[in-house]
Amino acid sequence: MSQFWSDLVHRLTPYVPGEQPKMDKLVKLNTNESPYGPSPLAIAAVAAAAGNDLRRYPDPNADALKRTLADYHGLAPDQVFVGNGSDEVLAHAFAGLLKHDAPLLFPDITYSFYPVYCGLYDVAFRAVPLDAQFGIDLDDYTGAAGAIIFPNPNAPTGCLLPTADIARLLDAQAGIPVLVDEAYIDYGGDSAVALIARHPNLLVTRTFSKSRALAGLRVGYALGHPALIEGLERIKNSFNSYPLGRPAQAGAIASVADEAHFRSSCAKVIATREALRAALTGLGFEVPPSAANFIFARHPAHAGADLAAALRARAIIVRHFRQPRIEDFLRITIGTDEECRQLVDALKAIV
């Protein structure tokens, strides 16, 4: 029945998310979810919000959540935008801030939703090659461009850019929007949020799905100059004026209040990540330093697809990308210590 599709639908190549398989005794290390649960305060807040008031629409502006996030990041509420997961926030940014006559620039190896949004919103783009160590060379982003976007740390590589380098880019490209996607920043990097006061062209996006373990709740947000936020609000209110339900808003507010749980969960993931990187290096893997809740690993004697298949046969799921330059790498989410021990034991047997 594809004859009923519009020309746009025929042209699209949709994003393929990490699979959510239903397997017994599965070790699931493929979608960068937190191995630890959300804050108990968040769980209680979601339950409390799931009552009779669900018959009424939620606050369309999510004012309480915006105030909470503004206070947490040292900003004003009009510098905060919230959406249904950071993917929706990014979608609105592509439509409202990143589409210009000159091309949008982003790395050639990065979050694979970026080119999908370019197709959906007809955004001209140029993919800028990473260097030989999979790093982002910001000198490659100082030429003519309509806008710039990149994750920090980058995905799927986990490589981190210092905020001083980002500040220099913002100065060099002061006339265009620069979006820094910080989905994984809580696992080892300094946030670019501190640069917002001096750089009105900077937008920073964040998510509750990773470090706050609320992937099932779908809450994301952006931080930036009020003019950038107003642009996002105009797009949102032309698309979906009620993006966050009552339980999502309540759970996110409670999660921000539980700083101890947040810090503890991040610290455990970081410790496990470094232990796993050392173990895989000892098995002969090439594992670049990571500042995210995953590592990027390649074994010189084994194809990435073969390793992924051999792990899957042992009920261990990792992410493999059939993409030039990285087809022999695996992106491995940091699980619990026990899950990572099972992974290492399996790889010992395989390699």
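the 2nd protein, sequnce then structure:
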Amino acid sequence: MANHNSNHANHSHHIIPFKIYVMTAAALFVLTFATVGFHQMHLGAMAAPVAFLIASIKAALVMLFFMGLKYDNMMNRVIFGISFFTLMLLFAISALDIWTRIAEKSTL
């Protein structure tokens, strides 16, 4: 019969203090209110990039603290980093598409 702890001998689980969770949740609430506030300002062509930037910061906070990526091994960080970069690339392409459509409408 195998020892159940043998598989986990080299991996220690980091316990994140409750205060970090509360501070992260507070930051997410503030960023959500910031999104609503910037939407009310009618930023025109800059509305989408600002919204994407705030969404990216919120996603990074969730990945780092709620998913525990900040304290995880390097391979998981690289995988999530590549995925996050791909997401940012898609956001940038979408923002450029929106921006060029707004510019095209204004010239008509």
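The chain has three helices and no strands. The CA atoms of residues 41 and 47 lie 9 Å apart.
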